Amino acid sequence: MGKMTAKWSRKQPDQSPLRNRAPFKSKGFTLLELVGVVSIILVTVAIALPLLQNASTSYQMRSAVNAVSGVIQSTRYQAIADGYYFQIAFNSSNSTYQISNNTCGTASPCWVTVGNAVPISNSSVAAAINTNTTLLFHPSGQINATTGSLNFTLTYKTQVESFAVSPYGTIIVTP
Questions:
Q1: Please, which pLDDT band fits residue 10 given cuts at 50, 70 and 90?
Q2: Which of 3.55.40.10, 3.40.50.300, 3.10.20.30, 3.40.50.1240 would CATH assign to domain 39-174?
Q3: Are β-strands 143-147 and 171-174 bridged in parallel, bridged antiparallel, or unpaired?
Q4: pLDDT at position 1, please?
Q5: What is the CA radius of gyration of the chain?
Q6: pTM: predicted TM-score of the whole model, two decimal places
């Protein structure tokens, strides 16, 4: 067998210092790439933020509308089920409502509050009712307004919803 010999040859170095360097390998992001990504994120957030705020306002308003509609319906059903008068007093100055009942009948009214005053909405910015309104619920299911009227408005930030309550409990809410 023949003897293997290795030929080692030494290359002559180039005279240019740039040619002696190893090829450039990326180990991170350039400042320009980071600025581009951050600007895309900022534009996306700037577009999405107003949409999220409007959705939040709409959600809070819908929650307040459902709370008011629900308390009207449930108080009417309570008057029918228990067989005596109930009333809801909506207070426009502090955006609350208070439920009361009257077990004595109409001849000698003896209104007793049921629980504490309840805020119309549980948001830091309360939904506001336009006027003090008291709804009287008869055991027959009929509804009368003793103060205010059967029509009132609820406002939350910039949104306004109008309520129309019929004498027999139908609630129509219009934006």
A1: low
A2: 3.55.40.10
A3: unpaired
A4: 55
A5: 36
A6: 0.72
